[in-house]
Design a protein that fits this description.
This protein has helices at about 10-35, 40-50, 85, 95-105, 105-110, 120-135. With about 140 residues, the protein is mainly α.
């Protein structure tokens, strides 16, 4: 029979330390097994959109900010100079329309100002959409 460790004993502190170390060392493996979240979406956004767009409200750059883009009427931000094609598009951005625009923008709004942007893969568009929704783009 082993003696019971007391919280004030050095052996108890070492036993707790070993358990904490085991937990710490296993954490990266556990995190790696989790599904990709904002990191892959943010990376996709950074690679494809960040040069011209921001997700911060009011932060218009070369392109309009994408804060609360889902549910917004196309071409409707008051502080951005959209192309006439985008102003007259006549639709509200939903998940499907935004995904299609990211993949083949000319097929959704011909005459947009996003030249020479030619689109991304459907997989990349899904990652960007997830990121936009997680950061206030919904």
């Amino acid at each position: 029979m082993q003696p019971r460790l007391q919280p004030s004993s050095r052996a108890w502190v070492h036993a707790i330390g070993a358990g904490a170390l085991t937990l710490l060392l296993s954490a990266p493996f556990t995190l790696a097994q989790q599904p990709a979240g904002d990191d892959t979406g943010q990376q996709a956004f950074n690679n494809s959109c960040r040069t011209c767009h921001s997700v911060k409200e009011g932060d218009n750059r070369l392109g309009p900010n994408l804060n609360k883009i889902v549910g917004r009427k196309a071409g409707s931000l008051p502080d951005y100079n959209y192309s006439s094609s985008m102003k007259e598009a006549g639709f509200v951005w939903d998940q499907d329309k935004l995904t299609r625009f990211m993949v083949k923008p000319d097929e959704v709004v011909s005459g947009h100002k996003m030249q020479p942007y030619g689109g991304v893969s459907a997989d990349e568009a899904a990652k960007v959409l997830a990121y936009l929704q997680a950061t206030g783009g919904q």
